[in-house]
């Protein structure tokens, strides 16, 4: 069909990524800094290509999970602040200064350690203080944050550059998000030194943006999923942004075969054919990132038509029902996530494209879009589309 295809691959549309960043920025007050969250290989989209494009497109800063990701990012471009979101282990500390990174701190122990590190190297260690307003993960509990803030401000070898918190339920519980936001604002009110610190104050992940008030003291956002084209929550701002999906995920038909009714399909016989069926065996499985939870639940697009997955997804192969698509043939592209053109004879309601979104795919897999992206394995080549015109 298409000479540039593999057995299984992900296509990454960098121009769509750039447009998404532009749309998100345009929807936010202009003073808000854009911190692009690119942990876990840019949510499986590929760190170097994604980050380079985000740098060219106006991202102000980056956030990653750990110092190793930060080191990789630093190779791509200098000058951009890099916030390490996860805890830094004692043996990883030296990387902070070597790559000029910003650490997240939330305990007195970390503050002591980094102050000592800065003293030893005669260079202040850059940090953001993380506050727990109800996520229950990293962060100093908000009612106890003030003394730690003062301890950091007093530390000679630490440069405090920001204060932030993280929402646990921005995509599902607006009331709880509001409570977290209020707790954070109450703490900020109690930090009179804040005004002369010129700090980055941030709380919002993608879903949080919807309730970000323009007159609030927040001056940065941390955007992950939304820039990759997925609104994890239906809200007025998120609906207005209309991000475009950046990644699509495809395999091919290896063989097409016919089996009589009653034959069990794949490991453990979880599906038995209810009619004489035409099956297509795809060249991808859970070894590529199609979760086994997609077994008997997901559909894939072939020639613009939805074809259901039958039986267990196996490591390298997945079986789909193409009985209603007699023209399906070896080599055809099977799209797990993404769009395909609908052939004229199958068009209904004037639709020219059929699409499976990552949200829909994740729903079939009892999973979340973030984890679906992170599950696309190293075996899957990423192909980059770079042109600006659609
Ligand atoms: C991953 C992460 C984000 C980005 O979240 P999205 O929902 O993908 O926008 C923001 N902040 C922190 C602390 C994170 O770990």
Structural write-up:
With 390 residues, this protein is α/β, with parallel strands linked by helices. The chain folds into 2 domains: 196 residues, Alpha-Beta Barrel (TIM Barrel), CATH 3.20.20.10; 139 residues, Lyase, Ornithine Decarboxylase, Chain A, domain 1, CATH 2.40.37. The chain has 11 helices and 20 strands. The strands form 3 sheets. Strands 1, 11, 14, 15, 16, 17, 18, 19 and 20 form a 9-stranded mixed sheet that branches. Strands 2, 3, 4, 5, 6, 7, 8, 9 and 10 form a 9-stranded parallel sheet that branches. The longest helix is centred in the middle third of the chain and has 16 residues. The chain is elongated. The model has no long low-confidence stretch (mean pLDDT 95). Pyridoxal-5'-phosphate binds next to strand 10.
The helicity comes to 25-40%
Total of domains: 2
Tell me what portion of residues adopts beta-strand conformation.
25-35%
Secondary structure tally: strands: 20
What CATH first level of the largest domain would be assigned?
Alpha Beta
Q: Indicate the radius of gyration in whole angstroms.
A: 24 Å
Q: CATH fold name of the largest domain, please?
A: TIM Barrel
Number of helical stretches of at least 4 residues: 11
Small molecules (ligands, ions, cofactors) in the structure: pyridoxal-5'-phosphate
Unreliably modeled segments: none
Could you tell me the mean pLDDT?
Answer: 95
Shape call: elongated
The largest pleated sheet is described as: 9 strands, mixed
Class by SSE composition:
alpha/beta
